[in-house]
Design a protein that fits this description.
Layout: H1 4-12, H2 17-30, H3 39-47, E1 50-52, H4 55-65, E2 88-89, E3 115-125, E4 130-143, E5 146-151, E6 162-170, E7 173-181, E8 192-201, E9 207-215, E10 221-232, H5 237-242
Helix pairs in contact: 2-3, 2-4
């Protein structure tokens, strides 16, 4: 299975596979853990050929992408460093030395929702006794019936907030999970929240709306409206760059 979560995270930072590899090498050097990350290695991760990065790469990935390894489509427990080879490959890997093509999103005849979308959700703050709206520009990538997304700009609510979503689609029904790492300088001081979503695609295909559910700090279950509004079908770096700013109302 392709790792669209990692690919989405890379594209949200407007990085090519070669550029991500260079940042990984730089991150390793900076902390005294040099690595040999290459474009080929990034291709293997994204194609799903290699499913368990060695710890030295996992730590570099966490530094560069700013999220834990388990939020990148990899297992939470990575394999120990071993001699020989970069990572552990899938058992059926027969592509040694062969360039791996980029996965083709979607299925012929099926709507494809890849592109830039405006994400908006509402939640009630019990401490402030007020309802707030969080907004992000998000990059969505669809592969078959799976959609992954990651924010490409700071939230209008909490500067530096990062949002990621992992969805599956069945006709017009969208179900999945979400995770938000709030900004360290914002009201929630870098807290992480996560939960589930249940959404419906409107007939136009330009709006996906429904409800989120998640846990509050007092172990209560909260919910509220969530919508995704279509903005641009392109996932090119210059398009992502254009939306790398906080949404305006």
């Amino acid at each position: 299975m392709t790792n669209d979560i990692l690919k989405t995270a890379r594209l949200s930072l407007r990085l090519s596979q070669e550029e991500l590899a260079k940042r990984l090498r730089d991150a390793g050097t900076a902390v005294g853990e040099p690595n040999d990350a290459s474009k080929r290695l990034v291709q293997r991760w994204e194609s799903g050929t290699t499913t368990r990065p060695r710890p030295v790469y996992a730590r570099a990935l966490e530094t560069v992408l700013g999220m834990p390894i388990e939020a990148m489509g990899f297992p939470a427990r990575v394999s120990p460093d071993t001699k020989g080879g970069h990572d552990m490959a899938a058992a059926a890997d027969k592509t040694q030395g062969v360039a791996i093509p980029e996965p083709m999103p979607g299925v012929e005849g099926r709507p494809n929702y890849s592109g830039i979308w405006l994400s908006r959700y509402e939640f009630y703050s019990s401490n402030r006794e007020q309802t707030f709206t969080g907004a992000h520009h998000v990059l969505l990538l669809q592969s078959g019936d799976r959609i992954t997304g990651r924010s490409v700009s700071p939230s209008s609510l909490d500067s530096g907030s990062s949002l990621s979503i992992d969805l599956s689609i069945d006709h017009n029904v969208v179900t999945g999970t979400w995770r938000e790492d709030t900004g360290s300088e914002g009201y929630y001081r870098g807290a992480t929240y996560h939960g589930a979503v249940q959404l419906l695609v409107e007939p136009t295909g330009r709006r996906i709306a429904g409800k989120w559910v998640g846990f509050g700090k007092n172990f209560d279950v909260n919910t509220g409206p969530w919508e995704l509004v279509f903005l641009d079908p392109s996932t090119a770096p210059n398009t992502v760059e254009r939306y790398s700013q906080a949404p305006t109302e």
